[in-house]
Amino acid sequence: KANKKENSREREREREREREREREREREREREREREREREREREREREREIFMAKSKCKFFHTNAPH
Asked: How far apart are CA 15 and CA 22, in angstroms?
C-alpha cells in the first residue's frame, strides 16, 4: 500500500521535473529569439550607417567640388 503511494509521488515528481525541463527549453528558445532580434537590429543599424556614410560622402564631394 505504502509502495503505491510512493510510486505515485515518484511519478508526480517526474512529471514536475519534465515540466521544469519544458519551461527551461521555452526560456532558452525565448533567449534565442531575443538574440536573433538583437542581431537583426544591429544589421539594421549597420545598413543605416552605410546609407548615411554614402549620402554624406556624396554631399561632401558635391560641396567641395572645385568650380
From this structure: 10
The secondary structure of 9-65 as a DSSP string is: HHHHHHHHHHHHHHHHHHHHHHHHHHHHHHHHHHHHHHHHHHHHHHHHHHHHHHHT-
**Is the sign of the CA dihedral 55, 56, 62, 66 positive or negative?**
negative
pLDDT digits (tens, 9 = 90+) for 39-62: 999 999 999 988 888 877 766 665
Exposure string over 11-24, b if 16+ CB within 10 A, otherwise e: eeeeeeeeeeeeee
Mean of pLDDT over the chain: 87
CB atoms within 10 A of CB 31: 10
- Mapped onto helix, strand or coil, the DSSP state of residue 5 is helix
